[in-house]
Design a protein that fits this description.
Helix content of chain A: 55-70%
Number of strands of chain A: 2
Order of helices and strands of chain B: EEEEEHEEHEHEEHEHE
Strand content of chain A: under 5%
Structural class of chain B: alpha/beta
Largest sheet of chain A: 2 strands, antiparallel
Oligomer: heterodimer
Number of helices of chain B: 5
Order of helices and strands of chain A: EEHHHHH
Radius of gyration of chain B: 17 Å
Strand content of chain B: 25-35%
Largest sheet of chain B: 6 strands, antiparallel
């Protein structure tokens, strides 16, 4: 399969549901952010030391969920193409909550603001967190732009909850990465 | 593209191999009992050391799974398929792909070059073909599956790109490429375009659609 098709040379691309849309449209902004988020999360995994196989597997599963979210965002709600998409439920958000609680149990209680940084994997997790927040904002903007009369679809609601929970997960992951590396947190000194 | 886990494997054996046109074979394989697909999807032939993808021209409920294959001089699959005996086993994975009829209030325009008509044969045989088909070929002898298209489609326009004599008294034939037809003949409007063929055709037709039929939807299956 060729990587380049030449069909996007004039500033438009095709949605999975067939519509040709501008590459600056809110839908493209939203799933472009998802792509960026997934890439930064990949960098988090790459920066982690050996010896965390179950945590790495968990993050790879999250990356797969981000691809599934991206497929939904690239499809107009109600289009026939949705038959090919895996249902996106509330289960991923619930999985993240369990993971957050699991990591948090190892961490000291947070009594002050901390500066993003520390070990490289932690720094990248903080970066992923900020991209995740932006992604969430752009998905909300997409919902508002598309003027969905009855609000977002059930699937989009689940994706929004997932993204909201994922940014919390990435914050805790950043702290956890510093913890397992024996790297102290940097408090914000006013 | 899809998840790796979504690829069931099947075994099938060659039942029929026949020439549809110079350089184009039709293969019929036994239909694995547990295979299911949507017209327009393709299967992947897992050969010895390489893979090839072909769209079924048969319907999901047919007794065989059928493919049309353009022979390539020196091509591995072409050589292997010509050498295969009737009854020869093949390993297949799939179904793959999302190039299926979407159903819509927009009129459908199917655009194919060469053996890119394969998914549209499956559409026609499944009764989903209330559309216009433009079939681009170099010479009229490469117009495969004409009978099916003439009987099933709302409109069928062979587009012949090389100079030719209309020996077969083809009706509704257009002299030129599919892009020329779209540019010159298709009425302005909003359509669902389905393109299947080589990358160059898909790139050119997409540019034309963006220019002349900009609110249309576009579904693509590229050979390369």
């Amino acid at each position: 399969m060729k990587i380049y098709t030449g069909t996007g040379d004039r500033g438009k691309t095709s949605l999975f549901s067939g519509e040709r849309v501008s590459k600056s449209s809110p839908r493209l902004q939203a799933y472009g952010d998802l792509d960026e988020l997934n890439s930064v999360i990949g960098a988090v995994v790459a920066a982690m030391d050996e010896g965390q196989p179950s945590l790495k597997d968990e993050i790879l599963a999250i990356q797969a969920l981000l691809l599934e979210s991206g497929a939904w965002l690239a499809t107009t709600p109600g289009a026939a193409s949705t038959r090919f998409l895996k249902p996106f439920t509330n289960a991923p958000a619930e999985m993240l909550e369990i993971a957050i609680d699991r990591m948090n149990a190892f961490l000291p209680e947070l009594k002050h603001f901390i500066l993003p940084g520390g070990h490289l994997s932690a720094s990248l997790a903080h970066m992923a967190r900020t991209v995740c927040r932006r992604t969430e904002r752009h998905v909300i903007e997409l919902v508002e732009h598309e003027n969905m009369d009855s609000g977002p679809t059930e699937t989009l609601k689940h994706i929004l909850v997932f993204l909201n929970r994922l940014s919390d997960y990435l914050f805790v992951l950043a702290r956890y990465c510093n913890h397992i590396q024996g790297q102290g947190e940097i408090p914000w000194k006013g | 593209m899809e998840r790796v886990s979504d690829t069931p494997r099947f075994a099938a054996s060659l039942v029929v191999r026949q020439w549809l046109a110079p350089g184009i074979l039709e293969l019929r394989l036994t239909r694995p009992a547990d295979i299911g697909f949507i017209p327009g999807q393709f299967l992947r032939f897992a050969m010895d050391g390489y893979e090839r993808d072909y769209t079924m021209v048969s319907t999901p409920d047919a007794e065989t799974i059928d493919f049309c294959v353009a022979m390539v001089d020196g091509g591995r699959f072409s050589g292997d398929i010509l050498k295969a005996d009737i009854g020869a086993p093949f390993q297949l994975t799939g179904p793959h792909g999302h190039f299926v009829f979407q159903g819509s209030s927009n009129p459908a325009v199917f655009v194919a070059t060469g053996t890119g008509v394969a998914p549209f044969v499956a559409f026609c045989r499944s009764g989903m073909a209330a559309g216009l088909l433009l079939h681009g070929v170099g010479t009229p002898d490469r117009l495969i599956y004409r009978d099916i298209f003439e009987s099933a489609l709302r409109e069928y326009v062979p587009c012949i790109s090389r100079p030719f004599e209309n020996m077969d008294n083809l009706e509704n034939v257009f002299s030129g490429r599919v892009t020329n037809y779209l540019e010159q003949q298709l009425a302005p409007g909003t359509y669902d375009f389905y393109l299947c063929g080589r990358g160059a055709m898909i790139r050119d037709v997409t540019a034309l659609i963006d220019e002349q039929f900009c609110d249309s939807r576009l579904f693509i299956e590229s050979f390369d």
